[in-house]
Structures are given as structure tokens and as C-alpha cells.
Amino acid sequence: MAAQRTVIVVGGGLAGLMTSMKLAEAGHKVKIFSLVPVKRSHSVCAQGGINGAVNLRGEGDSPYLHFEDTVTGGDFLNHQPPVMRMAERAPAIIYLLDRMGVPFNRTSEGLLSFRRFGGTLKHRTAYAGATTGQQLLYALDEQVRRFEASGEVQKFEGWEFLGIVKDEQGKCRGIAAQNLRTMTIDSFAADAVVMCTGGLGVLFGRSTNSIVNTGSPLSICYQHGAVYGNPEMIQIHPTAIPGEDKCRLMSESVRGEGGRVWAPRNPDDQRPGREIPEKDRWYVCEEMDPVYGNLLSRDIVSFIIYCVCKTGRGIKGREQVYLDITQLHTKQGMSREQIWDKLGGVLEIYEKYMREDPIENPMRIYPAVHYTMGGLWVDYEKGHDSTLDIDSPRNQATSIPGLYAAGECEYQYHGANRLGANALLTCLTGGELAALGVLAYLKNTEASAKDVPASLLEDCRKKGNDEYDGYRKSNGSENPYRLAAELSDTMWNNCGIWRLQKDLISAREKLGELAARIRQCDLLDGGTWSNQAVPYTRSVANMIEVGKAIVGGAIERDESRGAHFKLDTPERNDADWLRTTKATWTPDGPTFDLSEQIECNVIPPKARKYKINQNSIVRKIMGEDFFEKHGVVDEGEVVGR
């Protein structure tokens, strides 16, 4: 079947490749724009696995229970129809990947092996050792390469997205992009554009994200008029190892396989972790919640570790606690080969950067920014019962006609907190659904990429070129790298795990200052070939605008929910805040629309299933009178946290 229409997909990770594959299967021309070679997309860093209620262990698991865990884990801030679609598609997606050749771990009987992950009591996570993201990405890339060979797919690797082409009706008709080798800027017409550009963790500095994950493409779409949903919802992973350039993820699969989080009962204990006896170890998660233990949801475990270290009770008083798997070898009889088979990818990273054997020595970890629940606002259309009408052009559509989004750069599936191993799944189900949405959109629009006026494309190209030349010729006094460090310090210290209104307001003022200073940089590299200084400065400017939305959303949301814990208002408030925070960009800062109620058509909001919440953690670790000392009224469990 000959290619009929042209669709541009920005981003070559799992969401981008799934979208491209489905569009090419339908006979359309796809152009993939990726900042890095597709196989180096950040999806390759995913370690733990992909969720799906296949129920091979006979535990009574089902897509409904998967749906319920996801909604509960998200603290009921996720619209339920798209989540139901995700959970229902999950088993089929896993079997599809299996047929593509993903080398999933298997049981001795030859069946797919599943492990437990945080926020669930079922063995629901299929995995390929501890390099699941890499295996999935390579498998999908092989499929897309078939269409590349036949001409339906064209890859533009090493190109940076600069903006969308909008016509007089406000429809997206293409993009502008820059070749990072030659530094030439060009514009490209399309019938529709799909954003699959991942997260923005670099904004916070302490992040497990790749250094290309600045959130710049999201910011550009936001500045072009796309609505930004729930920007304040940022996930901080409980277990990472710090580095000078970035943090390295220690996957939740470590806890899924039996890893235990603990700190010495005496923070001044100078003994190596392996020499500290059981009676002197504080297994804090297991004491807090004996049922879920170390597999509490990520926002809870991160908060526990943060509070332990905030009170000076980390390892030797530092910002570290132990993640321990030594008992798998010494007490449970697992051989090194068995442990390595399940966790090799993670253990190799730890051994490389920490110079310690994690099978013999407890690992030292601390939380780091890991995932963005917020992102470009996207729509959906409900069909029969509680799921979606998959033939609707509204599915995965942003607020700009013709512009779609899938993967981590959109907000739809995870609410206020993502459950582990749902990320890979939503990249794939979201990419699949985005392709279906685009196909429906193309059926209903007569406008074609061939009809885009040359003047429209040239205007967009010229705008990108003028911006580039402006930065390249800048001769101010500021250093963009120092500004980026100030930005990340501001975001981590004022809008991280622990939030206070006065700190958030201070951060908003600082971001306004940084926005002015970033236009006054002294760029030492004025070259016209592989110039790294200008793209970096441009990304910092875009990160600042995203930061304003994140901080502004946190200021607006006067409650605590999921990953958003605000000491001034420490309770969940369903009466006033069971709604989406929708940010719109203006030159003077974001404006917010709080009118969209969350659709809870299957499960009404209720208390999360865990024994503890952030308020009880504060009282147990930091003292029963902590709130009173700080002038905060804690209303207990009244609102169902």
C-alpha cells in the first residue's frame, strides 16, 4: 500500500517507535525526528519491567486489579477511562513484544516470568533481566527498520525540535528543526505531528534522566499554546546513586526481588553496612507498613528516606540509606548467577560507579527525580462501558488541532504518582492510541502537507534561525552553565519532595530573575558546525519556562496528593482539588484553569490502600508534635489520604 499522508513523530523512544510503526502499517509516510540516535533514546535506560495482568501464577490478578492499583497509586488524579484502556491492553502488548523477540525472563517451565513491583501485591511485571527498556527499544526499532527499508519511515537523527508550524486556523501543519551537525535550520510540512519526547528531569539536576531530557520540546509546545496538564506532579525515585553529571537509577526491581531499605539505628555507627547486625538495623519501610513493606509506592518510599535523612539519621548522618540484597545470597541461598540473571544490569551499574560488590555489600542510595507525571494535556473520548472509543480523533490529541502526544511528555495516565513498570506500558499503549487518533484525524481533515504554504514554512524556519543567531552573537556577562546550576538548585530545594508555600513563591521569583539573565549570556562558541553552546543555552531558557509552570502549579494546588506534598496543606482535599491543573503560557508567567474535574466513572475516590501516608510518616519519624511546632493544622485521616 502506497504512503498516503505524512506524519511527523518527534522522539524515537518507545512511544515514538510504536506510533511510527502503527502509522506505517496503515500505509502513511512517517518522519521521525530524534535528538540522539533512536537506539540511544532514554527508553533504553528503563530497567525493571513492564506491567500486565497476565496472571500466569494463578494469583487472581486481572486487568481490573491492575487498573485499580494504577488509579489508587496515582491518588485518584488520573482520568479513569484511559487507565482502563491501558490495563486492558497490557497483556496483549506483552505477548506482542514476546512475538517480536524480546528476551523476557522465563520460568523453568518456559513460561514468562513475572516479578512484583511497588504499589501492588501481585506478580505482574514482565522483565528482561534488568535491561527491559533496552530490549523493548531494540525490538521495536527492528520493526520500524522494515518500514524504513521500504520507504514508509524516514529518520532524522541528530535533529533538535525547534517549534511547530501553525496555520491561520491554529492547526499544527509541521515543525521546524535544526541539524546539530551542520547547524542548518529547516521546516517540514506534515498532516499531523506527534510529540514523544520524554521527560524533563534534568531541570532538577538530581535526576536519573539522560542529560538530553531537558523538557525543551514540551516547553516549546507549551509556549506555542499547548495546555500543560498537572505540571506540579514530579516523581522522585527512592533509590538512585548520585553522580557529578547525573544520578544513576537503582531499579525498583531490586526491591521487587527482595531488596530491603534500612538505616543504622545509630546514625554515627562507623561500621561498614555488611558488618552491622540485624538488631542494629532500622528497616524503616517494613516497620511503617508490614504488608507492602519495601514495595510501597514510590512517593511514599522516597518520602520515608527523605525524612530519615532530614533528621540526620542517614548513614553516618549523610543523605544516604542502604538498599540491601546481601541476604539473597547469604540467607536465601541464591547463587551469584541467579541474582545476576535477574538484576545484572542494575548491579553492573552500581559496581561500576561505586566500586563495591552489591551482592556482598549493601548499596548506598538516595532519592532522585525520575519521572514526570505532568505533561502536555491530551484528550480522550469515552466509548462503551468504562473504556475508550478507539476510533475517535480526540484520543491523545493536545489542545492544538493536529498536534498529538504520547509517552512521558503527556500527562494522562499516572495522576499524582506513577506505579513502577507502568511507564513502558503507557509509552506503548499511548503510542498505539496516538496512532489511532491520528488516523481518525486524517480521515476527517482535507488539509494536506502538500498544501502547506511555503511562506508559512519559511516564517517558522526564519523564526528559529533568528533565535539561533541571537544566542550565537550574544555578548552578555552570564554563563549558561552556571544559570542551569542555579535553576536546578532552585527547583530541587524549593519544589522537590518537601514543599512549602513560601519556598515555592521564592522559587517563582528566582525563575523570573533567571528568565531575564538567560538572555544575557556570553557564549564562547560562535561556530557554525556542531555548536554545543547555543542549543544548551536555548534548552536552559526553555527549562525555565517549564519550571515556572511546575512551581506555579504547586503554588495553586492547596492540598497534598501523591508526589505533591505541601507542608502548609498536608491533607488530600477531594472536595476542592479532584481536578486537573491546566497551565497556559503567557509572557508574564503561566495562567491556570482548574475547572476540569477528574472522571471517576469506575472507582470513587477513597483512601489509598497503604497503612501510612506522608502525614503519618512525618509524625513517626520527625515527632508527633512536628506539625504543631511548625504551625500546621493536621486534620488526620478526615479527607481520606
What does the main sheet amount to?
A: 6 strands, antiparallel
Unreliable segments of 5+ consecutive residues: 635-641
Strand order of the largest sheet: 13-12-17-16-14-15
Number of strands: 21
Integer average pLDDT = 94
State the helicity in percent bands.
Answer: 25-40%
- H/I helix tally: 18
> In percent, how much strand structure appears in the residues?
5-15%
Task: Give the overall shape, derived from the CA principal axes.
Answer: globular
Alpha-beta classification: alpha+beta
Query: Radius of gyration in whole Å, from Cα?
Result: 24 Å
Terminal CA distance reads: 54 Å
Textual characterization of the structure:
It is a single chain. With 641 residues, the protein is of the alpha+beta class. Helices cover 36% and strands 15% of the residues. The strands form five sheets. It has a six-stranded antiparallel β-sheet. Strands 6-2-1-10-19 form a five-stranded parallel β-sheet. Strands 18-11-20-21 form a four-stranded antiparallel β-sheet. Strand 7 and strand 8 (172-179) form a beta hairpin. The longest helix is centred in the C-terminal third of the chain and has 24 residues, at 533-556. The radius of gyration is 24 Å and the shape is globular. Residues 635-641 have low confidence and may be disordered.
SSE arrangement:
Elements lengths: L5 E5 L3 H12 L3 E6 L15 E2 L11 H11 L6 H21 L13 E3 L6 E4 L5 H18 L3 E5 L1 E8 L5 E8 L5 E5 L2 E4 L20 H8 L4 E2 L4 E8 L6 E2 L3 H4 L3 E5 L16 E2 L1 H5 L9 H13 L10 E4 L1 H5 L5 H19 L8 E10 L2 E2 L26 E3 L17 H21 L10 H19 L7 H15 L6 H17 L15 H24 L17 H4 L4 E3 L6 E3 L20 H9 L3 H4 L12
Parallel strand pairs: 1-2, 1-10, 2-6, 10-19
Antiparallel strand pairs: 3-5, 4-5, 7-8, 8-9, 11-18, 11-20, 12-13, 12-17, 14-15, 14-16, 16-17, 20-21
Helix pairs in contact: 1-4, 1-11, 2-3, 3-11, 5-15, 8-17, 13-14, 13-15, 14-15
